[in-house]
Write a structure and sequence with these properties.
CATH topology: Growth Hormone, Chain: A
Shape: globular
Structural class: mainly alpha
Number of strands: 0
CATH architecture: Up-down Bundle
Helix content: over 70%
Strand content: under 5%
Number of domains: 1
CATH class: Mainly Alpha
């Protein structure tokens, strides 16, 4: 029986990593579509950026809802629904020619679908099914799947856009979502099939208790700045590279390098979170971002600079997820991890909304992203300090009946 469970765990981790590879890979490459959609529809960068900003918020808002559904009904059904909704959003986006249409397809449908098959559901599923000593590393492996997806999709989508146009690239992504549906079956499992005990009464009690915990709120504040940083870059890094007179190929390679570097960063973060205090890992990650941005601002804007910058940022890109999920699990246990971590991801994506939207406003008004870079560096430094007072238990809190 033990060997069978071990096999199941391995398949579940691999399936979760595969699902995240597809949903995050397509989502984190959306910045490549900004200019082509603008040329095709005649809509300005600010309007399209606003739709993508809505997508950032929607993706985060769906996380606690999808997490609560997965806690109650199991992750398989939630992931299946998410992939189908994401597929529908990708199919309809080429037919959207107005700001309202893009908000509906990119901002609501695609984002809600991706959010239903993302971190809160996938990490929560693994957290309930694995023993405590394996949870942090499993979160790192799952997270690495999302980063590898960014590496793969950035190059594929850029080539498809160049050869066949952005609409065909969108429909290609829809086809990939259909092909990924069997992964939901692998992850199909009743929420309490592993015998996870319930903590602190019902879900409402768990959420109320968490929102009164100062460490949980500090974690939210730090993750808000992470969302600002990632959404700004994933949406506007291609535009920044274009302003520097470099080709779209440099943009796609930069996004791909970020994803590849984050595979290693995510695995390292998952490994480290099982051995060291995760809040200290987060402090180091956020501080490194502030330093890298300042170095970038002082460097010559060449292709090599962007590749090195992407590699440096990529190490911490989404590698903040395993230590953040680990802190939530240590504070509150695994029973409602999908929901409570989903709320943390909502904070992340509120920051993401402002990162994507304000980036579009900045370049429209000033013709460059300078003020956004300064804001990003300041917020990263603040996030490094915010994580220090978090009172993180040394050992994960186990659910008690």
């Amino acid at each position: 029986m033990t060997e069978q469970k071990k096999t199941n765990w391995e398949w579940i981790v691999l399936a979760a990593a595969g699902a995240l590879m597809i949903t995050m890979g397509s989502r984190q490459s959306m910045g490549l579509f900004l200019a082509p959609i603008g040329i095709s529809t005649g809509l300005g960068i600010a309007s399209i950026s606003f739709a993508m900003a809505i997508a950032q918020f929607t993706w985060g808002a769906v996380q606690p809802i999808a997490g609560a559904a997965a806690d109650r009904y199991g992750p398989g059904r939630v992931i299946l629904t998410g992939l189908l909704v994401l597929c529908l959003g990708n199919i309809l986006t080429p037919f959207a020619t107005t700001s309202t249409g893009l908000i509906l397809t990119i901002g609501v449908l695609s984002a809600a679908g991706a959010g239903s098959a993302s971190f809160s559901v996938l990490v929560g599923a693994a957290g309930r099914l694995l023993p405590p000593e394996k949870r942090s590393f499993a979160a790192g492996v799952i997270n690495a799947g999302g980063s590898f997806g960014q590496f793969v999709f950035a190059r594929i989508l850029q080539n498809l856009i160049a050869l066949f146009g952005w609409m065909s690239a969108m429909w290609f992504m829809a086809a990939v979502m259909i092909a990924a549906l069997p992964l939901a079956r692998v992850l199909r499992r009743p929420a309490d099939s592993t015998g996870a005990a319930k903590v602190g009464g019902n879900l409402g009690d768990a959420v109320k208790g968490a929102l009164k915990n100062p460490s949980y709120l500090l974690l939210h504040a730090g993750f808000f700045t992470c969302g600002f940083h990632i959404a700004f870059l994933v949406t506007h890094l291609p535009g920044e590279i274009a302003l520097c007179g470099l080709s779209p190929g440099v943009a796609s390679w930069s996004l791909a390098i970020i994803g590849l570097a984050n595979v290693m960063g995510s695995l390292a973060a998952g490994w480290g979170s099982g051995r060291y205090l995760s809040k200290n890992i987060l402090t180091g990650m956020y501080a490194s971002r502030a330093v890298l941005i300042l170095i970038y601002l002082a460097a010559p804007k060449t292709a090599l600079t962007f590749y090195l910058f992407a590699a440096g940022l990529g190490v911490t890109w989404l590698a903040t997820v395993p230590p953040t999920a680990t802190v939530v699990g240590k504070l509150f246990g695994q029973r409602y991890l999908s929901t409570l971590f989903g709320l943390t991801l909502l904070s992340h994506q509120i920051g993401g909304f402002f990162g994507a939207w304000l980036g579009g406003l900045a370049v429209t008004r000033f013709g460059n992203y300078d003020w956004m870079w300064y804001a990003d560096a300041t917020l990263a430094a603040a996030a490094a300090l915010i994580n220090l007072p978090i009172r993180e238990p040394r050992l994960a809190r186990e659910a008690t009946a």
